[in-house]
Description:
alpha/beta
Amino acid sequence: MSQTTDDKTVADFxxxxxxxxxxxxxxxxxxxxxxxxxxSKQSQYEDNFGKGHxxxxxxxxxxGSNVPNxxxxxxxxxxxxxxxAGARKGINQGESKAFWEFARILKEMKQAYGEANxxxxxxxxxxxxxxxxxxxxxxxxxxxxxxxxxRVDLLRVNANHFVPQSRVRIFIxxxxxxxxxxxxxxxxxxxxKMRSTNARPKKIQEYISxxxxxxxYFHDLPNLPTSTIRLQDIIDxxxxxxxxxxxxxxYNQLHARQRSLLDDQVKSQNYxxxxxxxxxxxxxxKRQSTVELRNDDIAGCLRTPKGGSARQIVVRAGKGRLxxxxxxxxxxxxxxxxxxxxIDSSLSLNKALFxxxxxxxxxxxxxLGEHYFNTLAEQPEAVIETVETSGRLALNELAA
Length: 400
């Protein structure tokens, strides 16, 4: 049974606390199925989106016939073995090999509902996927989607286009070939579409050109917006700051140049906020725990708090004061564009931060939903133009 063009339903794999659901909701898409194995994440999800469609199980235990017939399947599969901060085992080992379970489920969904279903696939992961195993892990993923009947697009989006957080992620979009009208004389149109947006920067274009035999589809997209939200806009003014002695300890963990920066700012009549992490660095000629602050009015990438150094610090300087503390759950929600997300007051800070650190930025999904999937879902079948790349389109030349 084929999908109707106005059916904007989503199955969300590795759903976490539901920020993909929240983001796609902004563009009118409804998540009717969500899957994850973490009970705490399920509880947070259901506090915000209701009960009944969240499946608490490991992806290895799920079958495609249990998943509803949806228009869009999304998967933020584990980044543990792809991140530059990890062991870089790749897509075939460790937690990141869960992608192949998602691919299996897609095959089973097609057996249950027809080869064209779901019409669209969306994958999200860290930027390290681009270079993992010299780019071959990403290629294997793209080839798998091609084999499942999807033409693919590749985007790189930093959340700082929407919120005051530096959070770079790679997005892979699959559009089923039954929706694509293949042409062999539209090279210039496809080149324009590939270059139409800063969501396909040079490094993305270079990857595409090196893998021109992949069956690509490039959607015409606008440039990413420029965020007007600053770090100070997400600060919870009701949160308590650390005692003076703990703040002084942090101050002494800074590089001398950053201590000087704060000394000058303390004399200001206005507060300025800085975000930072503890890292092992050479400081005062010795490798030791060091606090490094950003001075660009945005936070660093939220992480899952598996250790003390993974928890992000906020520092306030000005009006004769210097204060510091950890970002709280409400601020983490705001950094992810989930300002009104319901956070259970009994939830520990670590569990709240884990949920947000393991999630996808809400307005990024809203942007993709509006500018990518809505425009595709509203078109009749077989009118989306692309080109045949196998031997007829030299993307490596077009991207030069």
